[in-house]
Amino acid sequence: MEFNRRLEEIPVYPAASTYEHSGELVKLASNETPWGPPPQVISAIQARVETLNRYPDPDKSVMRRAIADRTGLPATRVAVGNGSCEILMAAGEALLEPGAELVYAWPSFSMYPRLAAQSGATPVRVPLDAEGRHDLAEMARQVTVATRLILLCNPNNPTATALPVHAIDAFLADLPRHVTVILDEAYVEFNMLQDPDDSLDLLARHPDLVLLRTFSKVYGLAGLRAGYALGSEKFRLAVDRVRQPFSVSTVAQAAAAEAIRYQDEVERRVEMVAIERLHLELELGERGLESTESQANFAWVSLGDREEADVVGGLAERNVIVRGGTALGQEGMMRVTYGTRRENDRFLAALDEVL
Description:
Elements: E1 26-27, H1 39-48, H2 61-71, E2 78-81, H3 83-95, E3 101-106, H4 112-119, E4 122-127, H5 136-141, E5 147-153, H6 165-173, E6 180-184, H7 202-205, E7 209-214, E8 227-230, H8 233-241, H9 250-259, H10 263-286, E9 298-302, H11 308-317, E10 320-321, E11 323-324, E12 333-337, H12 341-354
Parallel strand pairs: 1-10, 3-4, 3-5, 5-6, 6-7
Antiparallel strand pairs: 2-8, 7-8, 9-12, 11-12
Organism: uncultured Thermoleophilia bacterium
Keywords: Amino-acid biosynthesis, Aminotransferase, Histidine biosynthesis, Pyridoxal phosphate, Transferase
Pathway: Amino-acid biosynthesis; L-histidine biosynthesis; L-histidine from 5-phospho-alpha-D-ribose 1-diphosphate: step 7/9
């Protein structure tokens, strides 16, 4: 077999090691929500099971209409995918090519380097600032006539930090029109700096902006894979053209269309995460471990002079799974998803033993 030479440049996604362990696990590695879908969503899934001999709707019409109703945008401007990752990868294929430049902050979402590697575009990595936030001024300075796409992760994964909407608005206003910006908002519901609807207003002022969101986090549908993008109709048609036609399953479409109706449940989950966020931040601080100002459902924790592998490995030996920072772009850190109070206290007890 002779493979595409670019294959060697494509980084392997640093998946969590959760699946290798047995016994009762505390899974705090993948930024999943600890609560399953609401009963109404389970019912919507069950109602579609008997139709699985048929292909899913290639237009994802019910799901797109539900998202349109929630966001106030026409369904023609809603793209949906097999998780937001699929839309991200399709955007890279549709927008990038050899000679084009892709600008993104680092460390950030582990999928971003793949876009340049798969398309042959030139990656331009901009370090985060001292607080672990996007350095928008430096990112703007890196824009050239070859820049085709900029990726902003807000709140940022893995550092959990966020920028206010007005700062992003000002950044977008100064960009040349040939640059597309994808604002990756996988964790937007957890962001206390804004209402999740605040960034929707940016779409009216910036026609080259795309908002990327997911049902994998606060909605609790990570196992079904459903995400969406809000942008221009031109963007939706472009990403649909480069993907397979039946990329979102029947049950994923049904579940997402139902889940987005229950914003009261979303708010309840966000409140519970915020309580656990404060609990863990205080407990980690008492142990002398510093973390960034989280606006997500996870903490980005500095291990100081401790060996990252020893801490992460020691927790795994105690059936507590977190993510080491090296695989995510910064050595000497760990990323800890906020779980239930019981899970978080088990993490703290295991951490005390390891430390």
